[in-house]
Write a structure and sequence with these properties.
The complex is a heterodimer of chains A (about 350) and B (about 250). With about 350 residues, chain A is mainly α. Chain A is about 75% helix and about 0% strand. With about 250 residues, chain B is α/β, with parallel strands linked by helices. Chain B has eleven helices and eight strands. In chain B, helix 7 links the parallel strand 6 and strand 7. The chains are: A mainly alpha (about 350), B alpha/beta (about 250). Chains A and B meet through helix 10, helix 11 and helix 12 of A and helix 5, helix 6, helix 7 and helix 8 of B.
Chain lengths: ~350, ~250
């Protein structure tokens, strides 16, 4: 898929309008103790546009959408220009995952690249915004801006992207439901539910005291960072786990195909058959079956090799002469010869 | 130059009619105009494979041989087996299945000149590129005639001792009759057999080219006489082997 420049620009701007409107809406709901950062599920939009249309379209949606949102909210269209760039990057980077082979997701590896690109894009975007501020704008102060700007911004983008982009891709049928993707989706879902439930219940518990207890807020964000780290660690563990189950299946499928083509040596199965679980049992049964079939085929082949075509030449000569020496045959031969000459 | 291809086997049950019908169909599908003659007057059967109802056959090869009709009237367009819209590609000259007709021809016999003339007329009238002759097994006077007329003789055999002996006689007879081109085709070969090794052995034993080794196919058995294998299952080992045979014999 390679859309033209016109289509990239058009799609980028069209979604930017939607993104900008959603931004202006969500700016009403600010995150606890963060002056400007809001809860922003809409970050999934530029990310998805970057993946589904083109990385540049994702950049345009993120960048222009943030301009529109800030303008509507009354922050001034270019006051926080470094955050426009940050939003652009968040739309651009996940789209690049497509160049890493993630066009249509069918394996755990592809899904992992996608999810990591979302978290990475959020981190890179925030890092860019912070870097630009330090160099040119000088709005942030350290360390106080850390809990009030930087962390909330990263968390809301990373977590929302991590949850919502896969849902959008599922709806857009860009995730093929294979054994691998079904499993990883299920595990990711469980991880998210457990972490969000914890984070949500803590938030609920401390919400009323937030303003008077700045330290509590700080702790909350630290807990949130730990949650994201846990999420990433759990996700990586899940990938390893899923591949441990699905890789042997792929090996078994390869072995079955090799056998179908008459190849009964199955070195690719050695790893699987060494396993002590159900898959190992299946692989061993498979190897035994291959051995039996090879034996049978060898026996048959030997029978063919030993096959002799025995022709009793004496009887043959007798049968031939019985026919050839008849008057009918002589006449026929003569006629046939004449036919062929004409 | 139109070519007459006779298909023969020393014993019955080698799959002669089936092979003939399939080769004819494959050739017709390649755009050639192909005719098939059923000279198995004692036990005709190939019309079943071409979906030709004996009720729709007012004139047969038998009628032509007695001078009751012109050969042109005994030629039937059976192209419909290739597809509902197909016409003028595949033709059949059937034998009569009426027992009276059969007995009469067998009793009085017929003349090779008449047969040859009939074939030539049919070839000219229907602009045929190939004419296949499906024969009765064994070496009686009628089958000898078909061998004598043929430009190419295909001898079908199974990997079976009785077939080996009979085929040796047929090959010698065909050489006596100076058939220009002759090929052996091994049919109903068990899947475990190595086709190349078997072909090499047969070539050495008969000093005659093997046009192909056709594997035994369960699908073919299931299909029975109710349809044409190469149309129902083109992309199988048997289908590909048949294509190979065609390439050899039409080269």
């Amino acid at each position: 898929m390679n859309p033209g420049a016109k289509k990239i620009l058009f799609a980028g701007l069209a979604f930017a309008v939607v993104y900008g409107l959603l931004n202006s809406l969500s700016n009403i709901f600010l995150l606890p103790s963060a002056p400007i950062i809001s809860m922003r599920p809409q970050i999934a939009l530029p990310m998805a546009v970057g993946i589904l249309v083109h990385p540049l379209a994702g950049f345009i949606t993120g960048f222009a959408g943030n301009v529109i949102g800030d303008a509507i909210s009354g922050f001034g269209a270019f006051t926080f220009w470094n955050w426009h760039i940050a939003n652009g990057l968040m739309g651009w980077i996940p789209g690049l995952a497509g160049y890493g082979g993630v066009r249509r997701i069918g394996t755990v590896r592809e899904f992992g690249i996608l999810q990591m690109s979302l978290v990475g894009a959020s981190a890179a975007g925030v890092a860019a915004a912070v870097g630009l501020d330090v160099l040119f704008i000088h709005l942030l102060t350290f360390p106080s801006s850390f809990p009030s700007w930087i962390l909330p911004a990263f968390l809301t983008d990373a977590v929302n992207g991590f949850i919502l982009v896969p849902i959008i891709l599922l709806l857009a049928r860009r995730i093929r439901l294979t054994l691998e993707t079904r499993t990883i989706l299920m595990i990711t879902g469980l991880l998210l539910v457990s972490i969000l439930a914890t984070a949500g219940s803590i938030t609920w518990a401390v919400l009323d005291d937030l303003v008077s207890h700045g330290a509590m807020v700080e702790n909350f964000y630290i807990a949130a960072v730990v949650s994201v780290l846990l999420l990433v660690a759990g996700f990586i563990a899940a990938i390893v786990f899923v591949r441990k189950v699905t890789d042997p299946l792929a090996d078994l499928a390869c072995a079955a195909q090799a056998m179908e083509q008459g190849n009964y040596d199955l070195p690719g199965l050695a790893g699987v058959s060494a396993r002590r679980d159900e898959l190992g049992r299946l692989a061993r049964a498979f190897e035994q079956m291959a051995g039996k079939v090879r034996e049978r085929e060898k026996t048959l082949q030997r029978q063919v090799d030993e096959l002799r075509i025995i022709i009793d030449r004496e009887k043959q000569a007798q049968d031939v002469s019985e026919i050839v020496e008849t008057e009918y045959f002589r006449a026929l031969k003569e006629k046939a010869r004449k036919f062929r000459q004409t | 130059m139109p070519e007459i291809i006779a298909i023969h086997s020393f014993r019955g049950g080698t799959g002669k009619s089936n092979t003939t019908a399939n080769l004819a169909c494959l050739l017709a599908r390649q755009g050639r105009r192909v005719g098939v003659v059923d000279t198995d007057i004692q036990s005709p059967g190939i019309h079943v494979l071409f979906n030709l109802d004996p009720k729709d056959v007012p004139c047969s090869l038998n009628d032509f041989l007695w001078g009751k009709c012109d050969i042109g009237r005994a030629v039937y367009d059976v192209s419909r087996v290739l597809g509902p819209e197909e016409r003028e590609k595949l033709f059949l000259i059937p034998s009569s299945i009426r027992t009276g007709d059969i007995a009469r021809v067998l009793h009085y016999g017929y003349d090779i000149h008449l047969l040859k003339e009939g074939y030539q007329k049919a070839i000219a009238q229907f602009a045929l590129d190939y004419l296949f002759i499906d024969t009765h097994p064994g070496l009686n006077e009628e089958t000898l005639m078909s061998i004598a007329i043929a430009d190419t003789l295909l001898i079908l055999l199974r990997p079976d001792q009785q077939d080996y002996q009979g085929t040796a006689v047929t090959v010698e007879i065909a050489r006596e009759l100076e058939v220009p081109k002759m090929f052996l085709i091994l049919n109903k070969v068990p899947a475990a057999f190595s086709g190349d090794a078997l072909a090499a052995k047969v070539t050495a034993a008969y000093d005659c080219d093997v046009a192909g080794v056709l594997p035994h196919a369960d699908d073919m058995m299931v299909l029975g006489s109710s349809g044409l294998f190469c149309l129902a299952h083109p992309d199988t080992a048997l289908g590909r082997a048949m294509e190979g045979v065609l390439r050899r014999i039409t080269a």
